[in-house]
Hints:
By secondary structure, the protein is mostly helical. It has four domains: 8-118, Butyryl-CoA Dehydrogenase, subunit A, domain 3 (Up-down Bundle); 145-346, Dynein motor heavy chain, linker domain, subdomain 4 (Methane Monooxygenase Hydroxylase, Chain G, domain 1), CATH 1.20.58.1120; 352-502, 3-Layer(aba) Sandwich (Rossmann fold); 508-670, Orthogonal Bundle (Helicase, Ruva Protein, domain 3). 56% of the residues lie in helices and 10% in strands. Strands 1-2-3 form a three-stranded antiparallel β-sheet, covered by helices on one side. A hairpin with a 4-residue loop joins strand 1 (156-159) and strand 2. The termini are far apart.
Amino acid sequence: MQFSPFKKPFEEEIEEWAAKLLTVSETLDEWLKCQRSWLYLQPIFDSPDIMKQLPAEGKRFKSVDNMWRSTMKRTHDNPGALEMCAREGLLEDFQDANKNLELVQKGLDDYLETKRSLFARLYFLSNDDLLEILSQTKDPTRVQPFLKKVFESMAKLQFHEDYSADSMYSGEGEKVPFVETIYTKDKNVETWMTEIEIQMKKAVRDVLYKSILDYPTKPRAEWVLVHPGQCVLNGSQVHWTSDVEEAIQNGTVKQYWDGLNRQLLDMVALVRTGLNKMNSISVGALIVIDVHAKDVVENLVKEKIDNISAFEWIAQLRYYWQNDDCWCQCVQTNFPYGYEYLGNSMRLVITPHADMCYMTLLGAQQLNLGGAPAGPAGTDKTETTKDLAKALAKQCVVFNCSEMMDYIMVGKFFKGLASSGAWCCLDEFNRIKVLSVIAQQLLILFGAKGELAGFNDSKEVDFEGSVIRMYPTFNVFITMNRGNTRRAELPDNLKALFRPMAMMVPDYALIGEIMLYSFGFDQARDLARKMVATFQLSSEQLSAQDHYDYHGMRAMRSVINAAGLLKRADQDMDEEKLLLRALRDVNVPKFLQQLSSQDHYDYGMRAVKSVLTAAGNLKRKFPNEDESILMLRAINDVNLAKFLSHDLPLFQGITSDLFQGVVLPQPDYKALLDALNKNLERICSPSPSCTR
């Protein structure tokens, strides 16, 4: 109307309305901005603990809160937008409120930065999680749900009535006592969490030392069950290193290798004795390590090694207990054991290629470089990095990179790494767009790290506008998938900071065999080969879909996990039937429906691991069941749901040829169907076809 040639008679009225509407628009903009900030800050300052720790910001927010509530009450009584927004002084009130809220937000950010600088692991938490932790100063037990975000394998602490803590528990229920009791009452969260980190490392070192001393005094089958899983693995490797070097010097390597074979069979037999879940995981992980130890010694026998300085021996990751500490050596590298609590967890199957990866990554760290495993999806780039961190008992934070990440977010993450001495794995690193800025950040940190002489040294570094204390044990690893053309190319100054390493497709049959051994399978080698053949034939004969992935570990691990579950449930079940059942359970559901998105067929590394995990779970559930049935069921469980309907007969033909004579019992879905029907009845009137 303001631009109409006929506005003259109404010009004053038009100008008056334009001014009113402009005021309404500006007021609503400020109002909405204030509302967003108020909604975020209000629950934070509702906590008495936060108000006590931020008195100035709390007072400032309280004044804004009073203005907001009085304004909203008037708006409720008089909801007319024009009348409310035109009220004199309202726009100025909201503008002042927004300025105050910005100051409150800045004060809050500075406060969180201060807390993070006092306990570096808090850098790995979001602001919301950190605020939730800081608001629980009166009751430390309410912080327990956040422990796993700070200490990867620590699920809870054992608190007493006086809020003292004397033990930690893993997610599987493993208890490890602290060397000294921690008193959390009347202490800031970051203070007693720092004490937890110190006591965690002391406790791991203490129980590790005890397990090493206890090893020669007990039968190995008994020793495995009385010590924490982490100490079982590490203590066994310390003695293995010592025993191998003694055998090399005495010329008895062949006899020692024979002993390792018997030792491995004893551990496989132990898995089948009905262990609880926690002990099953510990023994399973030890079997994985024992198989690798046996293979290393077998190679020493073949090469006729008679000197402990031979490359075939020093190229292995070895463990020594020296000067009351554990040290990890590989070729010319020598690193202190990190004593990070790892709980009960399976270990990555160590193939010859994994050995080369470990040697390369440790050599890179010795040269003050990061590691850059590169290769197609499903080649265990991330898993290899994480397993090396486990081998050295280092905290390893995996960060999935995206195009939305900026240098500020990454810089904050790097502060936490350098200040805590942790490792990180930046997954799909070349998806980040601001690589040149990140390169400058890493240049600062790696440059300062190179100036430190020892592992126990530290140095103050000016980084991203603040001074942090940097520890030389930190390192950065990046993974890249070069097959994706949308990924950015690394700038030259960033390439110079990382040692590249090509990741190859692993030996699926070997990995499957070792994992099945760890689940207690007798026919591990034969079943692993059949599983790999299933995926190979499926990739050749089934329709070509983006979501069919039989070429990696993803599908195989699913089948093996399913077979393991069946094996545990029925130890006497025929192993060939067990494998056939695992194959069916993993794969058949893939074929049962047409899906619009064609990215669920998975024959790769992750699929293989899914099958292995499923087979292991089935083995635990049915320890006496035929192992072929367990494996076939694991394969079917993991894969069938992903397949298109016209591929189902082809897949069933493949499994029937490989698992001849194996007939799977009809699966019992009664508990699942009852639960589905019960939930459906709550929201609708289901027909039988809903759960058919």
